Amino acid sequence: MLASRLFVLPLLLSLAACAASGDPEPGSSAPSADPIGTETRGAETILRATGNEPFWQLQIDADSLRFDMLGGDVDLEVTTPQPSAVGGGLNWRVSEGGSTLSATLLERLCKDTMTGMPHPQTVVVFLDGEYLQGCGGEPASLLAGGEWVVERLNVNTLRGEERPTLRFDIDEQRLTGSTACNRYMASYTLTREGLSVGHAASTRRACEQTVMELEQEFLELLAGVYRFSMDNELRLYLHAPGDQYLIARQQDTD
């Protein structure tokens, strides 16, 4: 899972190195279409990032780089320069209208300071020497990629084969998996503020009493989910009211 999550930035770095042709600062070319906010197809977005207090937003596509300090005087738009490989990340540096901007993209988990929403990328900006930090990439990409197996459900640590699973289809916004007894399917909604899961339809197979109780607890928690978070091990946390939560780990897809 970790390898797939960190695939795009190394690819960008290797493409940048291949494009150098004797220049000590390598450029970049089009990366993979992995949907984590760094893809380039024509003039589509390479990077979209935002930060809070002060509020700012940065968008880079194949043609232009645009930075806005919301509520301020800075509104910068220039032709996209080739990025440089810096400290395991990518850096864009521009000067326009008396302002100098340096933006560095790192494949490092980032949490929105206002909503708590996790993002796959950390973005560091220096604007005329002022340090700004924000988040980039799409939160949905953190959910995608394979099956999540529940390791903890509220106070209970789960082991063995009979554990609930989750699989997020980010294109259809559909959640499927196993309750540990039955198969289930539900819609889900991911916004900038949180995550919610619709009513789950499931098969009706009977299982042992303890497994049925686990299923009921799992489905009740899913129905109340209002946000998700991740830790540094990229384990998924689903949060529900009353301090209910589950922890799941994504299985390797290799």
UniProtKB/TrEMBL annotation:
<dbReference type="InterPro" id="IPR053147">
    <property type="entry name" value="Hsp_HslJ-like"/>
</dbReference>
<feature type="domain" description="DUF306">
    <location>
        <begin position="142"/>
        <end position="240"/>
    </location>
</feature>
<dbReference type="InterPro" id="IPR005184">
    <property type="entry name" value="DUF306_Meta_HslJ"/>
</dbReference>
<dbReference type="Pfam" id="PF03724">
    <property type="entry name" value="META"/>
</dbReference>
<feature type="signal peptide">
    <location>
        <begin position="1"/>
        <end position="19"/>
    </location>
</feature>
<keyword id="KW-0346">Stress response</keyword>
<keyword id="KW-0732">Signal</keyword>
<protein>
    <submittedName>
        <fullName>Heat shock protein HslJ</fullName>
    </submittedName>
</protein>
<dbReference type="InterPro" id="IPR038670">
    <property type="entry name" value="HslJ-like_sf"/>
</dbReference>
